């Protein structure tokens, strides 16, 4: 089999392996394309702490300045900080330098529009056209300005969350949280936010030097240290983030992860309890969202997977809250991007307001068990796979909004190629974990067989 | 569109036109790969395109596994001294030098602090053209380190070389026009260290260039006014990155940048005789001064790399070029206006005579210059044809060290391609003005352009 290419250029950005496909020349071209696309003005940049971050940042600065932009450099900060500061500074766009949950050898650019949202698919396509055409604006040397450093970006983010959601109510029982930013971009912000909200905080994995103390994704198998710390400190809750601070996973007081699908459910419940309104999530997120929303009598609308799609769907639906099953919470009142700080604040408020435990709040959704598997698959094969899957389950009238989603009596599953990596993801939900896993594996096996059959591969 | 010049002296172009971030990234990658990684020092002059170019340079160097030491705004000779001190494998100075503000360029320095030689420059170009594919993975990729001390260390080095005379210089009043270049961070401090009374002007690198950065009569007006108003003993006109220098005397008369080297040669040979190095198109006043002291002159092709190499090879006591660049080998064998200032002021103090008298003592010759714009596609063919057309000249010597130089007993003319612009430069020098003009016209007639 030929090697799977590591470079992924798509409407959600450009992502590649450092030392291999992600070269500074290409990065500087992308930055010039964005500078050209937003027509100059101020562009906010920030990065996660990957070892390649400085190299990529320099290439981004060169490209933006060359295309006539004023660069506001936030340094190492969560991706949602970039989104927030784009709006606060009235910038025309932003670039977050992060490969979010990918392993340390990866890095990527994510593009933010002047509204603080990731570029939508349509706008991403326009940017790609400019990138490929290569006819970038070239500002005369005399008109170029050096980047401004914004040293207090993280503090501004923390302030925005506290002023948007409020400090924890006076007189509520004291809360203690353990945060595990995973040595990522939120290593400074996470403990600072919890303290600013008025809860006691312990922190682990806050050395952000690009050497990941645990795998970047805040999924159950990577949360061993957090679970131990929550128990050791007798904390009420544990929070884990991914490398760029947009996703949040929650551990209960017994050290038990509640599953990242429930982050949105718990956070949204806090919002709906006060301001009922539509909620938006993607097509691959747990049905627990509907179960929760029905209690408040509000509509759930589903979009394609990806923050840009969810954010766009939220705007159309006038949603009060939204997010994704990977632990991403969007609360437009504070920030129009997946923001783990917002998620932490909402969940802490939920705990303080109800006086209930995390386990208790998660209990109603115990029968929504989601299992996710992923399999390496080059993009061209993935396309064939999807076509086959559509035929294979045609009788179940699959939902084709994004990939192929099939509802069966025992649960549902969705097969879709990743937007960011050469892999196919299969997500399944059923009342028990075993049933969900069985469903996912069975779906993959059936679909993969169609590829391997003679004359098909 | 202004031309892009990629040559052995580096890469030079106009930002906003030819000098794009991609090109700079690729050049920096090629340089890092050529040096096989290691520590690389980077500095820039204060022109506004500097931060963009520096970001691209840094990205390129980091990508191939180099560790980048950022000296910020800093004169090129300070970087050149700092390279060996930091045991670095090389350096990149981002400076348009004497070029107008819209230009910028990369100058490549090797581990001994000198510019790449012509052969090394050729090798670097080969690496550049071939492209780099061996990049640092995530565990090898390094970061940037900020270094603030290069200028202080340069000052220390200068003080060591020129220390013993400091007291005698105490009373000199020196007007200095730094042109808001990187020298503003070095030369006024150096003059103070020498015990001078300093009258600085345009000494803020955060402000735009107030004049073209090329030292000479045309750019000396502010220095002249300052000398007169401040009753100074002399005035100094500096370029943007600390290599070139021209002088103004105590009466406020500005001298051509061509005068700087002959005076520096006189100053150096007064203390110690030894070989002198300059390029083929620099004034014959250098030879006449050297003759007085019984010293020998070595001529090289145009370009600092050649001059530096010959200084080392011949153990020269002084070197430089007609553009106002002077190398004092006791400091380092590369153009350094601060070192030249130390040498010249010490001489001035020893002689106890005004600058006007010292310049009047230099042999007089008359120079005529002409720059002929030639499109890049025709420039080297025009020179090749000229060489054919000139052939052998009766009663004269023809020298092909760089371009075409013809020397008669009473004068010479030299024709060559500019290293930095799309021009053919003709320069003639003779005892009499009419003869200099005649030689210039003689060459111009034979140049088919």
Mind summarizing the main beta sheet of chain B?
Answer: 7 strands, mixed
Tally of distinct domains of chain B: 3
Number of E strands of chain B:
20
User: Major sheet of chain A: size, sense and barrel closure?
Assistant: 7 strands, mixed
CATH topology of the largest domain in chain B: Alpha-D-Glucose-1,6-Bisphosphate, Chain A, domain 3
Please estimate the helix content of chain B: 25-40%
The overall pLDDT average of chain B reads: 93
Structure commentary:
The complex is a heterodimer of chains A (about 450) and B (about 450). With about 450 residues, chain A is of the alpha/beta class. Chain A folds into 3 domains: about 10-150, Alpha-D-Glucose-1,6-Bisphosphate, subunit A, domain 3 (Alpha-D-Glucose-1,6-Bisphosphate, Chain A, domain 3), CATH 3.40.120; about 155-365, Alpha-D-Glucose-1,6-Bisphosphate, subunit A, domain 3 (Alpha-D-Glucose-1,6-Bisphosphate, Chain A, domain 3, 3-Layer(aba) Sandwich); about 370-450, Alpha-D-phosphohexomutase, C-terminal domain (TATA-Binding Protein, 2-Layer Sandwich), CATH 3.30.310.50. Helix content of chain A is about 40%, strand content about 20%. In chain A, the strands form 4 sheets. Chain A has a 7-stranded mixed β-sheet with strand order 1-2-6-5-3-4-7, sandwiched between helices. In chain A, strands 9-8-10-11 form a 4-stranded mixed β-sheet, with helices on both faces. In chain A, strand 14 (about 320-325) and strand 15 form a beta hairpin. The longest helix of chain A is centred in the last third of the chain and has 20 residues, at about 435-450. Chain A is globular, with a radius of gyration of 21 Å. Chain B has 14 helices and 20 strands. Chain B is globular and about 65 Å long. Chain B has helices spanning about 20-35, 50-65, 75-85, 120-130, 150-160, 185-195, 220-230, 260-270, 285-290, 305-315, 335-350, 355-360, 380-390, 435-445; strands at about 5, 10-15, 40-45, 65-75, 90-95, 105-110, 145, 175, 195-200, 235-240, 245-250, 275-280, 295-300, 320, 325, 365-375, 395-400, 405-410, 410-415, 425-430. Chain B starts with a strand and ends with a helix. Helix content of chain B is about 35%, strand content about 20%. In chain B, strand 12 (about 275-280), helix 9 (about 285-290) and strand 13 (about 295-300) form a beta-alpha-beta unit. In chain B, the strands form 4 sheets. Chain B has a 7-stranded mixed β-sheet, sandwiched between helices. Chain B has a 5-stranded antiparallel β-sheet with strand order 16-20-19-18-17, covered by helices on one side. A 4-stranded mixed β-sheet of chain B has the order 9-8-10-11, with helices on both faces. The interface of A and B includes residues 50, 59 and 142 of A.
